[in-house]
C-alpha cells in the first residue's frame, strides 16, 4: 500500500488559496479549521486528497490543485485589501472577480493608498515575498503638503521612532516641489502598518496621495488603475530568487 503523503495543514490551506501560510495559522489558532470533524491545532498534518478539511464551515479540497496564479493589481484608492468586508466597504476581490483561481493579497496596502498590490494562490510565494528576512524593498510616490525641509527629509532617511519602534533607514528623493505641495519618492526596507503616513504625521505633513510603484525590481509601469495582469516568469523569479540586487536607486 502506498504511503499517504502528508503536508502541514497551513500549507494545504495556502496551496488551496484560502490565505497565506501565516494567515492560515491564525485561522487554525482561532479554531476556525476542522480536520475530519476535529478542531485543528498548529502542527497538524493532513492528507490533501483524503482528509476532510473545513475552514469556517466550508470544505476545501486538495484533490485538484489549482493553477498557480501571480497577479499584479493596480489598486485604486477607496478599496480595502481584503477578499470580503463585514462593513460593506469595497474590497480588492471585486477587481479580480474575473480570475478563475481564488487569489488573495500578498501583504497590504491601506484603503486610502493606491498602486501595486500582488495577489496569488501560491502560499509559498506569498510567504517568501512577505517574510521580513527577505527584506524586499518597496517604492512609493508620495505627495505631501504644505512643504518639506531638508532637515525633515534627513529625519525620514535616518529612521524615526513611531509607536515605540525605530524605523529602518530609508531612501527619500524629492521629485517635484511646487507651491503648497511636494512630491517625494520613498524606498522602504520594511512594511510596518501605515508607516509613511505616520512618519509624515509626526513631521507635521499632510499626505495628499500615496502610491506604491514598485516591489523589489518589479514595477507597476503603465498598468491602469483598477486593472490587473499576470506577472511574467522573469518577474516571479526576481522576487523569489534575488529580490534586492546589490545596487538600486529610486
Explain what you see.
It is a single chain. The strands form four sheets. Strands 7, 8, 9, 10, 13, 14, 15, 16 and 17 form a nine-stranded mixed β-sheet that branches. A four-stranded antiparallel β-sheet has the order 3-2-5-6. The relative contact order is 0.15. It has 250 residues and is an alpha+beta fold. Helix content is 20%, strand content 30%. The chain is built from six helices and 17 strands. The longest helix has 9 residues, at 21-29. The protein folds into three domains: 7-60, RNA-binding S4 domain (Structural Genomics Hypothetical 15.5 Kd Protein In mrcA-pckA Intergenic Region, Chain A), CATH 3.10.290; 70-133 and 221-241, Alpha-Beta Plaits, CATH 3.30.70; 137-215, Alpha-L RNA-binding motif (Alpha-Beta Plaits, 2-Layer Sandwich). The protein has helices at 9-15, 21-29, 123-130, 150-158, 195-202, 233-241; strands at residues 7-8, 33-35, 38-39, 45-46, 53-55, 58-60, 70-75, 104-106, 114-120, 138-145, 161-162, 165-166, 171-178, 181-188, 206-215, 218-219, 228-230. The mean pLDDT is 90. α1 packs across α2. A hairpin with a 7-residue loop joins β8 (104-106) and β9.
Write the layout of secondary structure elements.
Blueprint: E1 7-8, H1 9-15, H2 21-29, E2 33-35, E3 38-39, E4 45-46, E5 53-55, E6 58-60, E7 70-75, E8 104-106, E9 114-120, H3 123-130, E10 138-145, H4 150-158, E11 161-162, E12 165-166, E13 171-178, E14 181-188, H5 195-202, E15 206-215, E16 218-219, E17 228-230, H6 233-241
Parallel strand pairs: 9-15
Antiparallel strand pairs: 1-4, 2-3, 2-5, 5-6, 7-9, 7-17, 8-9, 10-14, 10-15, 11-12, 13-14, 15-16
